[in-house]
What does this fold into?
Amino acid sequence: MFKEFLGLPLHPLVVHAAVTLIPLLALLGPVYALRARWRPKMDWAVGLLALGAPVAAFAATQSGEALTDALVAKGYPQEALDEIYYHSQQGDWLFRFTIALSVVTLALLVVTSDHPKAPNPPSWVGRVLSVLVVVLAVPVLIYTFRAGHSGAETLWQNTF
It folds into this structure.
């Protein structure tokens, strides 16, 4: 399912969604957490990003594994496969941190919403969730850079 699209490897296509949605969540999530006045204007965008970013990260990791399997089957050099393995480790960490950031961001959205059916926890819960959103955004941005850079570097070094 995650191998090809119209005869092309799916991974380079899916990665574009991941490198767009994930950093946007990591940037807008903390803004939502820290700027209460802006929340009503941002809640829908942050909610969509919190739902879409982990889906994009999942698709990127799964399509990357399929691409790696195809390269192994074609007898790709071991040195290049080692670089790809490092890249996949960075992507796996990015996926984990993206899931965590998304869950905490969605929880913050629920806690801070004015919807009558939303739970009304103590005020410290919103503050704790806000801090977690800001803290989790840091490794998400770091691993987005590390995964993207290692993938691009591997491709560049082994293609041109």
Summary: Helices lie at 10-34, 39-73, 78-112, 123-159. The chain is about 80% helix and 0% strand. Residues 18 and 56 are 5 Å apart (CA to CA).
